[in-house]
Amino acid sequence: MSVWWIMLACGVVTFAIxxxxxxxxxxxxxxxxxxxxxxxxxxxxxTALVIPExxxxxxTLWLSLNNSRLVAGLIAIAIAVQTRSVLWTLVGGxxxxxxxxxxxxx
Amino acid sequence: xxxxDSAFQEFRAGLIALAPLLVGVIPxxxxxxxxxxxxxLSPAAALAMSxxxxxxxxxxxxxxxxxxxxxxxxxxxxxxxxxLRHALYSAALAPRIVHLPCRWKLALAxxxxxxxxxxxxxxxxxxxxxxxxxxxxxxxxxxxxxxxxLSTAAGVVLGARLPAHWPLDFALPLTFIAIVAPLIxxxxxxxxxxxxxxxxxxxxxLPFKLGLLAAALTGMAxxxxxxxxxx
Lengths: 106, 231
Description:
The complex is a heterodimer.
Chain A: H1 3-24, H2 32-37, H3 41-55, H4 68-83, H5 86-103
Chain B: H1 3-38, H2 43-52, H3 56-67, H4 72-83, H5 86-93, H6 102-110, H7 114-126, H8 133-158, H9 171-180, H10 187-202, H11 210-229
Helix pairs in contact in B: 1-3, 1-7, 1-8, 2-8, 3-4, 4-11, 7-8, 10-11
């Protein structure tokens, strides 16, 4: 299938999700279990993306202080909790990775 | 104050509220543009995706999955699951715009992103919104949309000139850390993150990042179960 069709399908699905509650408001109700589930969706989906990037930078588990992506990621988590700023988390995480890769083998 | 004046003021307030968030969005958009080309998308397709999908993290995921040759169904399913979090924002916005005409609802739904929702939440935490508040939503949404299109275009143009050894892909986990870390403040959220992270590691061997699907679903289930058993 052409990449354009995949893109269009992803766009339709994403727009449908964004429109879901806005369109349904006052016309139909969603089951309460679904509303209970909603707050956990961002954390579940995004954590699943982040953890392997930090702990498996080369495809296998690498639990070591020599793993610069893991250490820089932990520093970024601390910054994110403290500042709640995407910008400072990006700046701090990249700076930490650059410093660590400069001082230890990448 | 006439309705027209306050509509304009709300619109301008929306633009201004979103401006600081652009400082983080612009490098993210540039990195996306470069990543799209590196994974075999044409410049036209890379730019079109920013309009069609208009979701930074999903666009990253799309490029990565395309790069590893994932089937179309897998790409659509994983992008859908990643963007399911927008249903949460849709639910929050719905009662405030229920009175608006259909074209407004379609426009505001299209412009609903992590960043626009963050700007709206901050505004509404401070004071009561007036009858023209939908103009604020439109201003914030359009500011982000414009910033995203321009920065992805810059990434597409500069893409090949960015040095290959720069670890630009690290922007992806860093951006998600910035969104997620502040949300993990309850027992159920800790459980969600722990289960999702563990399953992601255990299922990392599955093809086409299907471990991502398994991890997200089990993480959601864990959070839901912890929230339900607390009652």
